[in-house]
Fold this sequence. Notes:
- The protein is of the alpha/beta class and 275 residues long.
- The chain contains eight helices and seven strands, in the order H-E-E-H-E-H-H-E-E-H-E-H-H-E-H.
- It has helices at residues 14-27, 59-67, 78-86, 141-152, 184-202, 211-214, 222-229, 254-274; strands at residues 32-39, 45-51, 70-72, 159-165, 169-172, 207-210, 233-239.
- The strands form two sheets. The chain has a four-stranded mixed β-sheet, sandwiched between helices. A three-stranded antiparallel β-sheet has the order 1-2-3.
- Helix 5 (184-202) links the parallel strand 5 (169-172) and strand 6 (207-210).
- Helix 5 (184-202) packs across helix 8.
- It starts with 13 loop residues before the first helix and ends with a helix.
- The mean pLDDT is 96.
- Zinc ion (ZN) binds next to loops.
Amino acid sequence: ARGSSSYYENYHSMKEIYHWMEAVVKVHSDLLQKIYIGSSYEKRPLYVLKAIHVRERDRTMTTLLEHFDFYVMPVINVDGYEYTWSHPSNRLWRKSRSSHGNSKCIGTDMNRNFDAHWCGPGASHFECQEIYCGPYPESEPEVKAVARFVRDHKDIIKAYITMHSYSQLVLFPYSYTMNKSKDHEELESLAQKAAKAIKRTTWKTYRPGAGAQTIYLAPGGSDDWAYDLGIKYSFTFELRDTGTYGFLLPPREIKPTCLEALSAVKEIAQHVLQN
Ligand code: ING
Ligand code: ZN
């Protein structure tokens, strides 16, 4: 059931996730707010949850919440995610569900659609590719909504973290170029600290590194875009595993994956607080 611990040990449909968001802000109305930031191509609402200061059991979390608000968007690709449930043969659908021009192919890669060296090497102008960049930057309503939210809050946002799978990596800018960013050394040492926090938590090994140097050239990603907007502490976590199950991570690994990711988030937040 919603809110029971087994809820966090299973995958859920979009409908269930919407109900969960409703329920969790209702039960924790002192701590949580649900912010509507726009709607998807197929007109599903896009929500960000905002966590504010309240009495907490966890000491680190109490301190962090005294200094920061946390904005969490559980699902950005609401249409694509729903499609993986309604069309189980497309369980690994990656892109949005938008249609552009008169192509027979559907969907844009949202992580190639941000305005950061948009559609350079590592993305494709061809609609049928998994890394299709879309007709222009922020063509996807979901990307536009997130970009607008981040732009509107850029003076208060201290860090930006986006969660993907899989490979067990803590990535930082740049992904659109092999060149190092001007904060490379600091971001590298912080990514290392985050990886060590994960190691202490679940004993899993995550590798830190700049995106392009660690995996591949990938322009139009949200972390590079947020970084160039002026949000220095910008990261992409590639969560479990390293290829045994890949994108089809067994439900029993969801909770430990969340715990290790949370420990990395806390490490980054503590660093931001000290700097
Ligand atoms: N990985 C990311 C992708 O879009 C990435 C890797 C990170 C690209 C940061 C660009 C910027 O390819 C997954 N799994 O989607
Ligand atoms: Zn991804």
